[in-house]
Amino acid sequence: MRSLRLPAALVAVALVATACSDSEGAGGGYPREETLYTTGTAWGPPVNWNPLMPGNFAVGTKGMVYEPLFHYDSEANEYEPWLAESDEWTGEDVHVITLREGVEWTDGEPFTAEDVVASLELGAYSAVHYSNVYNMVESIEATGEHEVTVTFEDNRPQEWMNWAYSEAIVPEHIWADMDEEAVTDSPNEEPVGTGPYAAESNTDDRMVWERNDGWWGTEALGLEMQPRYVVDIVNASNEITMGMLDQNEVDLSNNFLPGIDQVLDSNDAITSYYDDAPYMRSANTAWLIPNHEREPLGDAAFRDALAHAIDIQQIIEGPYANLVEAADPTGLLPEWDDYIDHDLVAEEGFSYDPEAAAESLEEAGYSDEDGDGFVETPGGEPISLTLEVPSGWTDWMEAARVIADNAQDAGIDLEAEFPDEQLLVENRNSGEFDLVINNEQQLSNTPWTYYEYLFEHPLREEQTTGNFQRYENEEAWELVEQLAEVPAENHEAMAEATSAIQEIQLAENPAIPLWYNGLWAQTSNEVWTNWPSEADGPHHPATMWNGWFELGAIRTLAEIEPAAQ
Amino acid sequence: MWRYMGRKLFVYALTFVVAVTINWMIPRFMPGDPVRSMLSRGSVSDPEALERMTAYYNEVFGLDAPLHEQYLSFWAGLFRGDLGISVMFYPEPVVDIILRAVPYTLALLVPAIVLSWIVGNHFGAFAARSKVLDNTILPAGYVLTATPYMWLALLMAWSLGIVAGVFPTAGGYSFALTPGANWEFVSSLIVHWFLPFLSMFVVALGGWAIGMRNMIIYELEDDYATYLRALGAPRRLVRRYAFRNAMLPQITGLAVQLGTIITGALLTEIVFNYPGLGTLVLDSLNNRDFFLLQGIFLFVVVGVLIANFVIDVVYVLIDPRTRVQMTGGSS
């Protein structure tokens, strides 16, 4: 059997190699017991570490390397001083922030008030994404080596605190001299930050962070980052991620993995936050976005009918296998429960009710005159709508089919379509769509971000961050601006302001909240244990997603423990 | 001989020009604007900033010139080895990215193609003279040839990777290592290489074995074989002649199959998340990185053309009949 000799030899070589790499695995590279493997954040190779290019920088750049002034604890609903040590409003429009002493940049320079001033002043460039925040500031001054005084011309504390907790402070000695193009377009290949990790190396399929042992937080906050290395693996297919999780090659997966409920139930080593359905915490709201510029979606009565026609339970039990929960009619996340006006919701909120849907349609004059089973506009024009979700987003595709079926049952001619994601994004931004599903607004320090997302005004030609539905209501926007002006810690005044907004929201349904997308986090307990768990673990989010480090996720890296070997 | 080569070269050059042109056209006439998508990833919302940045990137990528100028400068860049700048890896040049991925793809492709072809042919010839093998292994060969690469790869990843836990299922080398010239890294490379290689090898093997087996049976019934046997030539000798003759169509088959095999390799890489050209194709498609996509396809086209040319040359060397035809003699 001469012909089989070669393959046999190859098998032998491969097996020897397996044996060797097993036995020597701990010798070089990143020792397994000191390394945390994560996935679920990066959709492309890491090529950028510029915290001023959101959407481009490698996830972790902001949060692990660069840090903000504050963090926000969504459970306690309070701000935690981070690079700031304390803060005080000395006047109605004057915010004095005292910074921590003894903080150092990774290049050895001390962190001072000048760094904070320089970071905010980068907003003077209109291409920097927080130029709107810079514009409401009258002056920002370093009133001491570790004291910054911000005076507002147009004081919107909610918006300001959103900046203070979510935006990175960058070193003045590196960034202050850059021109606009460098600030908003340089890949910043050697990031110099204050955070607990620093960039170690990267290839097309991974980003490696190494612990910064001189991090200030170890002493000041008593937080000791457990993993010496964090290897963030660029997302691969669901099967590969599932396989790697199963083989303990990944410790934390922040991907939505269909069928993960079965794995969680059958494999003891893999856990999630809740032991039972819905398994995951909520991270953001999936909204049904109707384009108000298209007939008849601009009609509140029609949207009301649509909202009543959708059977959310069918989506939750079907495509999601109970991994998600139905959204509140206001769309606000469970963390923001205090800001939901429950009496109002009980009265005005919608729920699945086909009869109410039919009533709404009839009252507003939508009826089926030509007998094709679908209603026409009061003017007799036929209605034919499409609901678009990105091709390949299987859970959303199934959900879209359910919604289309529900709508058709209610007499609304709605079809689900699955274009390429990029095309969808372009059409969505420029307003070339009937209905889409969107969940881009995440949990944050204030429901104001949700309302900005819903009511942003005035409309632009391109809507890239919010108000994709192109809803115009100046009164609502004024209320949102008033919410922004409420002092950040005044929860009662905030609830009052949100209630006023909800009155308009529930009457108009500018966008229809569907379900809470989960904070997908499946964790393997083979190498690292003590993962966040409702029952008996810490409660900070276990995620590497962008924007969550500031919401306590960075603490998870200090709370996990090496499994006993 | 030279006239034959010249004619072949001309055909290849023509194919190359057409392929490059189509390659250049597709991304430019496809829906979706790469610059816009790059900016929307950065969530630039200020319309003025958006306009300024669009203009800036259009200039960087050379998209502001008229189409015919873009076409000409594309050719000019091609001869300088400049395929433009990647959108996904901005601002890295496309060529660098491709050169980084090519070794992985070649390391999969070349052994898989060559070994499956050699082993398949020998095995097919061997099976043709054994009733037992013919009845047992050959049907298995049929199943293998009909198997899509992707499916077999998934099956292998599941059985040998996840269930048996012998081989890793993702990546080009362990996520715990940084590339270096040490045994540990090399062994990690081999372990990660093995499954994708095996899946391609096995799928291709069946086809070659079946082809060879059929050819051998056909050749053994040919007049010259009967004549040789009548002269009392030993079985071995007859079979050797039959094997040589049966090889010729197999070589042609190899040339024809090359394109398919490369497509298979791209799919296999995606299944195993192997850092070669296939994964790069998927990533660049997902990121609307047309410049990279165009560069990869160009690379593949050139590779297939070169391989075909080599096979053409080899064919001349091993088949005397082509040489006779070329020098003007009739068959």
Q: What does this 3D model show about the protein?
A:
The complex is a heterodimer of chains A (565) and B (331). By secondary structure, chain A is α+β, with helices and mostly antiparallel strands. Chain A has three domains: 8-64 and 195-280 and 519-562, Periplasmic binding protein-like II (D-Maltodextrin-Binding Protein, domain 2, 3-Layer(aba) Sandwich), CATH 3.40.190; 70-183, Dipeptide-binding Protein, domain 1 (Alpha-Beta Complex), CATH 3.90.76; 282-518, Dipeptide-binding Protein, domain 3 (Roll). Helices cover 32% and strands 18% of the residues of chain A. Chain A is built from 20 helices and 21 strands. In chain A, the strands form five sheets. Chain A has a seven-stranded mixed sheet. Chain A has a six-stranded mixed sheet with strand order 14-18-13-17-15-16. The model of chain A is unreliable at 19-27 (pLDDT under 50). Chain B has 331 residues and is an all-alpha fold. Chain B has a domain at 95-288: MetI-like fold. Chain B contains 13 helices and no strands. Chain B has helices at residues 2-29, 34-41, 47-60, 67-79, 94-128, 131-146, 149-163, 183-220, 223-230, 235-272, 277-286, 290-318, 320-326. In chain B, 37% of the residues are buried. Classes of the chains: A alpha+beta (565), B mainly alpha (331). At the A-B interface, helix 1, helix 7, helix 9 and helix 16 of A face helix 2, helix 3, helix 5, helix 7 and helix 8 of B.
